[in-house]
Amino acid sequence: MSILLFFAVLFILILVHEWGHFIVAKKTGMRVDEFGIGFPPRLFSLKKGETEYTFNALPIGGFVRIWGENGEDRSETDSSVDTSRGFNARPKWAQALVLIAGVTMNILFAWFLFSIINMLGVPVPVDEATATDAAELYVIGTISQSPAAVIPVGAVINTMMVGSELLSRPTPSEFTTVVQQAGETTVSVEYTSAGNTTTAELIPVRGLIESDPERYAVGASLSLVEVEKMGLVAAVTDGFSSTWHGLALISQIFVGDADFSQVAGPVGIVGMVGDAASFGIAALLTFTAKISLNLAVINLLPFPALDGGRLVFVLIEAVTKKQIPLQWAGRVNLVGFALLMLLMIVVTYNDIIRIL
């Protein structure tokens, strides 16, 4: 399920990114030959005007084929072809707009998601002293091979029973007290996860808490959570703040403050998607918005093969008033792509090592 969610998130975010390139290319007068949904092999296609809309078998995003992007307009000799509509023939400002349009759409999409999340309701940790009756006790983590490891992360604790004593909707402190008093007696915990209600029989053990090894515990990290909803204006305003805060990642990358040990590749993200989904739709949408911002940041980096690197080429041509040789630009982008693939392999290896 996590893998399917990962591909769904990836598909949507790449499609949003490519749609940004597509719409701005159209609006700036460029000839767009193809807008592909998914990647080949092709299933079927529809043609509207000069653009062919293709639907492909691999649901891992999409692509835009702008005429002249690879230099076709520079070498075209057919006088019947309007070379002025090629990518490289358009003004530099138009080329720059097309290149940053994908990044811009990822940022706007994140803003949209944050706003929707705020209106749907954001799960917020609350203190027991201020919590209302609507607060629910969530399992936010468990210790591996502990009694509570059988309870999924994101589950809501409904009741707990020791002997004939039943406690409904416990708070974190009540949960801890019941477990400590139970000692080695079985604690029946009823929880809801993914719409299903299940009962787990937990026997507390000692040694799970380093600071107090004699204390009985079951190895669950808990948080009391309430859902806060916002009106339209507040949701959009707070969504903008969340987006701006997320873009602070850009400064971390450029000034070298980022913790690269925490960087995750595809394998790591699959696990993160599953964890986010376990906490509900709001958590999954929040995760998707953050990934969208990360894609925007990465694509804006001035590195060959990325939008930022291609933007550097456009700026160089604008300043020097000379076209960069296609062969040279192609080689630089190829090297950049190879380095990106190497980085992906290293990050994926790191993901696997963490799992093992």
Summarize the structure.
The protein is an alpha+beta fold. Helices cover 48% and strands 22% of the residues. The protein starts with a helix and ends with a helix.
Can you give a write-up of this model?
This protein is an alpha+beta fold and 356 residues long. The chain folds into two domains: 2-28 and 91-121 and 230-355, no CATH class; 124-228, PDZ domain (Pdz3 Domain), CATH 2.30.42.10. Helix content is 48%, strand content 22%. Strand 7 and strand 8 form a beta hairpin. The two termini are 21 Å apart. The mean pLDDT is 84.
What distinguishing features does this structure have?
elongated, alpha+beta, 2 domains, 9 strands, 7-stranded antiparallel beta sheet, Pdz3 Domain, 10 helices, 356 residues, two-stranded antiparallel sheet
Shape designation: elongated
Radius of gyration: 26 Å
List the domain count as a whole number.
2
Give the amount of beta strand, in percent. Answer: 15-25%
Helix content: 40-55%
Q: How large is the count of helical segments?
A: 10
Poorly predicted runs: none
- Could you tell me the mean pLDDT? 84
| Count of individual beta strands | 9
Give the N-to-C terminal Cα separation. 21 Å
Structural class: alpha+beta
Helix/strand order: HEEHHEEEEHEEEHHHHHH
Instruction: Report the major sheet.
Output: 7 strands, antiparallel
